Amino acid sequence: MNTTHAVVPLTVQDADVLVSAAHRAAEAAGVAVSVTVLDAGGHLLAFRRDDRAVLIAGETSTRKAYTALQLDAPTADLVDAVQPGGLFHTLPTALDRPLLFIAGGVPVRRDGRLIGAVGVGGGAPEQDHAFAVTAVEELG
After folding, report:
1. 23-59 pLDDT, tens per residue?
2. pTM of the prediction?
3. Which of 1, 2, 21, 122 is the S-S candidate for 135 at Cβ 3.0 to 4.6 Å?
4. What are the angstrom distances between the C-alpha of 8 and each of 39, 43, 64, 78?
5. Alpha-carbon distance 118 to 106, whole Å?
């Protein structure tokens, strides 16, 4: 007998929670950011850029979310893997859709299953990572 159960996918309401939580954390730190939320298929669920965020933050938040989703790992954990001699050294240039191996992308899981990812750009990499982790923790 199969005892697996369906996992509720990431919803627009979930995406709103993630975006709001990341922005609150960034605002508390005095950092202007962009936040991107993707569903499990890599489709955009939510995006918001602070008025004061550097323009490239929108692109970096989206690429960080996509990278975290595709590799099912926080981008902060993958930085060393793309260095010369690393496991994924050629991966950033091997795909049509660009990956970004800078901290700030975090997978989102529900009941242990990957349901999407959040990416934050605009602060220092360790700040972006912390804001994304805060958002995922708030979602629960």
Report:
1. 999 999 999 999 999 999 999 999 999 999 999 999 9
2. 0.90
3. 21
4. 11, 16, 23, 27
5. 5
